[in-house]
């Protein structure tokens, strides 16, 4: 096995003369592949974004994905494609599992310390931080500002937490139909959420003890979120968790789906997807992990345990580790 192939360079090295003027576009375009290769799951890791994502008052600009139902990804051949001098570059799950194989010295080390061969991926929402209550608080504050009633019904709260803001405003709460007013309400909702989020200074109960044990065992960890990078670094620092995570995947990485974020985390940890274990509380995230050939640990919280099994079975991804 050639030990020179690392996660920072997934394409075999080429002569320097051919790369003298090459450049990768800043925004690889999302493509849908032909049915012939529809089984492939593609991801291309993009560089971090610019620093213009912050407002003058120090608050991060509101990301559009906080109150949006994200795509699971890794289905029907979706993926990223970018172009090089020698043609398009496509990276799928099988490619990553092949290129991120351990070299000889790594195999020797992992034979002595098998735990280090794995990589752990933690979702930010409700696994690292209790964002469920923060989102409900943001909705309550918005209702108070707008002079609206906010229902405490459990079923409605569940819809609010796991449905896009557009649908909640139009169909669940029936507050507004006009597009311009919807945009104003969504923007204000996100601002309220961020204001609550920056006050958060403690992780989910029991997480720090678990990360301590994992850190002692030498297992690399990654955290994935749709939030911006600066906030994630500051928040992890405030919670005292920053030292535990060797990789962070945020909005700036440009991932278009949950599965893409998981694959990006695997590359950053230098672990092949099949050796990664995802910690998630959402059945959609569990499905995305299995679509990427990863193992998963489902945390029971907002969703009963049987929901995860039913959801996965409906997508023919029925196994839970």
TrEMBL record:
InterPro entries attached to this UniProt entry: HAD-like_sf (IPR036412), HAD_2 (IPR041492), HAD_sf (IPR023214), PGP-like_dom2 (IPR023198)
Entry keyword annotation includes Cytoplasm: no
Pfam families in the record: HAD_2
Keyword entries, A-Z: Hydrolase, Membrane, Transmembrane, Transmembrane helix
Signal peptide annotation: none
Keyword rRNA-binding attributed: no
Entry protein name: Haloacid dehalogenase-like hydrolase
Ranges where the record places region Disordered: 1-23
One of the record's GO molecular function terms: hydrolase activity
């Amino acid at each position: 096995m050639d030990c020179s192939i690392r996660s920072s360079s997934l394409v075999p090295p080429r002569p320097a003369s051919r790369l003298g003027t090459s450049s990768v576009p800043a925004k690889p375009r999302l493509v849908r592949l032909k049915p012939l290769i529809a089984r492939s799951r593609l991801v291309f890791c993009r560089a971090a974004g610019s620093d213009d994502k912050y407002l003058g008052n120090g608050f991060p600009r509101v990301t559009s994905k906080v109150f949006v139902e994200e795509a699971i990804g890794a289905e029907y051949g979706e993926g990223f494609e970018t172009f090089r001098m020698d043609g398009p570059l496509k990276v799928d799950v099988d490619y990553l599992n092949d290129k991120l194989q351990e070299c000889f010295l790594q195999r020797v080390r992992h034979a002595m310390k098998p735990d280090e061969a794995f990589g752990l991926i933690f979702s930010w929402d409700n696994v690292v931080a209790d964002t469920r209550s923060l989102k409900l608080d943001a909705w309550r504050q918005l209702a108070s500002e707008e002079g609206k009633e906010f229902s405490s019904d459990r079923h409605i709260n569940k819809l609010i937490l796991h449905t896009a803001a557009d649908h909640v405003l139009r169909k669940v709460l029936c507050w507004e139909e006009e597009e311009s007013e919807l945009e104003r309400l969504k923007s204000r909702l996100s601002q309220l959420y961020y204001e609550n989020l920056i006050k958060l200074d403690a992780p989910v109960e029991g997480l720090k003890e678990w990360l301590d044990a994992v850190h002692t065992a030498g297992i690399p960890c990654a955290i994935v979120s749709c939030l911006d990078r600066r906030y994630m670094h500051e928040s992890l620092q405030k919670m005292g968790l920053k030292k535990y995570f060797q990789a962070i995947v945020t909005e700036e990485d440009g991932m278009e789906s949950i599965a893409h974020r998981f694959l990006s985390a695997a590359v950053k940890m230098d672990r092949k997807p099949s050796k990664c274990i995802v910690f998630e509380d959402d059945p959609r995230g569990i499905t995305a992990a299995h679509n990427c050939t990863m193992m998963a640990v489902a945390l029971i919280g907002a969703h009963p345990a049987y929901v995860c099994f039913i959801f996965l079975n409906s997508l023919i991804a029925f196994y839970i580790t």
